[in-house]
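Lecture notes, unit on binding sites. The following record was shown on slide 14. It pairs a sequence with pyridoxal-5'-phosphate.
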Amino acid sequence: MHDPAPGTAARLTVDLGAIRRNYRRLKSALGSVAAAGVVKADGYGLGAVPIAQALWREGCRTFFVAHFEEGVALREALPEAEIFVLSGAAPGDEPEFAAHALAPVLNSFREVEAWAALCAKRGPQPAALHIDTGMSRLGLPADEVERLAASPRVLGATDLRFVMSHLCCAEEPAHQMNPRQLAAFRAASARLPKTRLSLANSSGVFLGADYHFDLARPGSALYGLNPTPGQPNPMEGVAILEARLLQVRHVDPGGTVGYGAAPLAQGTKIATIAIGYADGYRRAASGRGRMTCAGHEMPVLGRVSMDTVTLDATGVSDAALLPGTWVEVMGPSRDADAVAADAGTIAYEILTGLGRRLVRRYVNG
Ligand SMILES: *Cc1c(COP(=O)(O)O)cnc(C)c1O
């Protein structure tokens, strides 16, 4: 990997080849079932456009974003892709969706009616229909499914591409919600016009073929997060987060470090690293996180600040700690799930919270 522009303090390297291999792994777990790419929240913080383009080259034709603006940006990059907007269209926004060839996920009976009204004027336009089977977040609740089942003509000229639902507990294979949602999805979709069906997110892919239907919607697994927590990660890590070592100092016993002046009982060697909570390295990892430099794992000492983190480098030779050296914050030595655990959160939140200041670079596209 070539070096970034001189002066870079903290960088995020995204391996598009690894994302493509993860897509292939999911495809092989799915057999003949299609796999979409979920690239909402700027591709889970890693960059929706380069990632979607890499997935396109891998044969992925269907993409999900959460918000309209994300769809507009993706549409420019992929003129021929099928792009679904999970949040749906707010009342009156339907023509904007059609203008950008974005397909709303219809989340309520009202949204179905509004899309059908647009289709009545302009001819069939693609959409998906979301039914709620337990998430109680988005999608038609049971009574609205009944209404639609009783009057399927409400769909009008809608080009209904599939009916979907979303699993609440797929990362816990033994959870009773999985079979319950599966049964509810089967029952509800059987009452609606026959079309393709979609239920599984990343973890859902690993619940077995019953959960696959016609289209899976993996997001996190593409980005290397473990879809099978508690078991070895079947996916490959795709992102490396590194920051420069800025300075090393020795603090005598009785000295302090960082905001709040955490006391140092012993003489301590401290390495200051150019990354902080402004870059998405969580303040909650204060005194808990770990980073790796030249094979040495060093604990975070004291509070994480906005632009810097201090590490306990006691026992590491000065030769390994030259200013300008890259320190691995997240990557092969500490994956996103581990970095998240250090901060008491989940890897989804770590990736989507990566700061805008990081220099992003894409390799193996
Ligand atoms: C985010 C999301 C997904 C992808 O979930 P992962 O757990 O990241 O695979 C799929 N479907 C819906 C409706 C989502 O909101």
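Take-home: The chain is about 25% helix and 25% strand.
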